[in-house]
C-alpha cells in the first residue's frame, strides 16, 4: 500500500503545478498508466471485488460464457464499478426465487469478519495479528459465502410463506435449508445463527400452536434460566453494562438520603447488588440504611432461592457495615405483583430497577386495563426517586411475522458475532443457549406465550412519557464507567454511545442494549382548593395547612 | 513482570540492595557490619517500592522478609501507589472484609492496570478514582459470587485473566 500512497503524493504535488482538477490527483497513477481509472481510496475495495469475482468465476465456469456474451458493460476503464456490475450479474444468475426482497445489509454482520480478514491480508502480510485473526475467524471460501447468502435468502422466503400461511411450502424450504447448512461452517458466523433460526422455524411449522417455547414455562425452567442468565452475564458485557449503569444512576439519585429502598423486578442471583452495596458503603458521609425487595419466580421443591440470595447479600452488607434488609416477592409474572407486597415506607427514597422485564408486559390482548398501564401506574404511585429501565434495542414486537423475523435475524446475528470473541467455555456455550431461547420465543410463539416483545428506545420514551415519567439524564460518570468496563473486555468492537441522556451498548455501531433512567412527574394534588374547600393536607409538606 | 518504567523512580532490587550493603560492610571492616534485617523500618520502606512479582520474590528470601512481604499494609501501598488522590479511610475495612489487599491486587488491580495500560497511549499513568471504584466493584462481585455459588462458579474476573485476543 505504501507504494501507492507515495505515488499519489507525488501525483498530488505534480497536480498543484498543473492546472488540472484535484480529482486527477486522487487517481492511482500506476493503474492509470495501464489505461484504468481507479481512485486510490478505492483500491482496496477493487482488489477485494476482483478476488471475489475470480473465486466466483472459478466455481461456476458455466456462467462465465453467459457473462461474456449477454452482459453489456460501460466504461471498462472504470474498474471499480465494472467489477461491481460483474459481481451483481453473478449473484443474479444464481438459482434464487424471484420474489425475494432485496436486503443486502443483512449479511453485513457475519460476513463482516470475512471482509475484515481480506483487508488485513491486503495491507500487511507480515502482521502477527493476521495469524491470530486466522485462528479466530476461519477464512470462508467464496462458495461458503455464497451458500451463506443463499441461506439468508431462503430463510426470509420461508418466513414470508409462514406469514402467508403456506406452511407446506415453508416446510419444503426447511429441507432446502438443511442441505445448504451442510455446506456452511456451522460453528461460527452465519452458519451458526442460521441453524438456530432454522430450528425455530421448524418448531413453528411442525409443532401445534399453543405450546410455549423459551418463555420459561414450568418451575424447573426458572432454575435453568438462572444458570443460563449467569453464564450470559459472564460471557459478554451486556448485563454487566446494564448493572453498572443502573447502579451509577441509582447511587446518584440516592445522594443525601438516609433510608433507601430498591425494588428489583428480576432478582436472579442478585449479581447487580454487591457493587451498589459496596459503593454505598464508601459514600462520603456514610452508608444509608438499604432495603432491597427482590421479585422473582417461585421456586420448586420448597427451595427458597430468593431467600438464599437475600441471605448472601445481607452477609455481604454486614461485612461492609451497611444496614441492610431484604424481602423476596415470588411472582411468576410481573403483572401479578401488587404494590402492597413491596411495603414501601413513607420517608424512604425508592428506586425501581427493571432489567429486560418491562417488555414482557406487552403480551396480552388489548383491553381497557392493559398490564403495562397498570404496572406503570402503580410504579408512579410509589413516587420513586428513579426508575432504571434497561431493554434490548430491537423491534421484535411488530405485528407482521416477516418484519419481526428479519429484524430478529439481524439483531441476533450481531449479538452472536460479538459473542465470538468470548473464549471462556462453558460460559460461551450456555450463553448461546440463553440467546437461543430468546430467538425461539420471538419466532415460534404468539399471544401470551410470546414474552420477548422487545421495542426500541424511541418507543419506550413515548410510552413512559405518556405514563407520567420524565427522563433523567445518565451523567458522564456512567458513561466513563461503561467505557472503562469495555476496555477491560478483551474484544474490541463493542461501543458505548450516549443519545439524549441514555446510554446504548452495541457491537460495531449497531446498538444492542439501551439503558435509561426516569423519574415520576409530580402527581396532581388529590384535594385541590377548587373541589374541597376546607382543611387539606398536602402530602409533600409536613405541617397541615388550614385554609379556613 | 510489571515494568519499572511506570514508577516515578527506579527501585532497587532486594538482592542488589543486599549485595551493595554487604560490599560496603566488607569494605569497611572496622565499622560494625550492617544487616538490613536489623532495620525493619528501612526494609519496609524498600519493600514498599517494589512491584508485585518482585514482592513475591522477596517473600522467599527469609522468614522476616516473608512476614513483611505478606503483610497487607505493603499490598495496600502497592494497590494505591498510582492513585491521584488518597483513598477514603473507610476503604480499609471494606477491602479487608472482601479478602484483603493482596487478594485485591492479585485478582483485580494487577490485571485491570495491565489491561488499561495496554489500550492507553499515555505512558506515565495515574489511576483515577473512577478506576479504583470500578476495580473495587468487580472485586466485590467476585467475592459475592464465591460466597453464593461456591469457588467453582464462573467468576466475574475471569475475563481479566484471559489474554487480550485482538
From TrEMBL, chain A:
PROSITE patterns: GRAS. A motif (LxCxE motif) lies at residues 156-160. One of its GO terms (cellular component) is nucleus. Residues 308-340 are annotated as: Leucine repeat II (LRII). Residues 229-294 are annotated as: VHIID. A motif (VHIID) lies at residues 260-264. The DELLA motif is required for its GA-induced degradation. Residues 1-20 are annotated as: Disordered. Residues 28-94 form the Transcriptional factor DELLA N-terminal domain. Residues 350-441 are annotated as: PFYRE. It comes from the Eukaryota. It is found in: Nucleus. This is DELLA protein. Transcriptional regulator that acts as a repressor of the gibberellin (GA) signaling pathway. Probably acts by participating in large multiprotein complexes that repress transcription of GA-inducible genes. It comes from Carya illinoinensis (Pecan). GO terms for biological process: gibberellic acid mediated signaling pathway. Keywords: Gibberellin signaling pathway, Nucleus, Transcription, Transcription regulation, Ubl conjugation.
From TrEMBL, chain B:
Residues 40-78 form the F-box domain. GO terms for biological process: gibberellic acid mediated signaling pathway; regulation of gibberellic acid mediated signaling pathway. It holds the Pfam family F-box-like. InterPro entries: F-box-like_dom_sf, F-box_dom, SNE/GID2. One of its GO terms (cellular component) is SCF ubiquitin ligase complex. Residues 1-29 are annotated as: Disordered. Residues 13-29 have a biased composition (Basic and acidic residues). SMART domains: FBOX. This is F-box domain-containing protein.
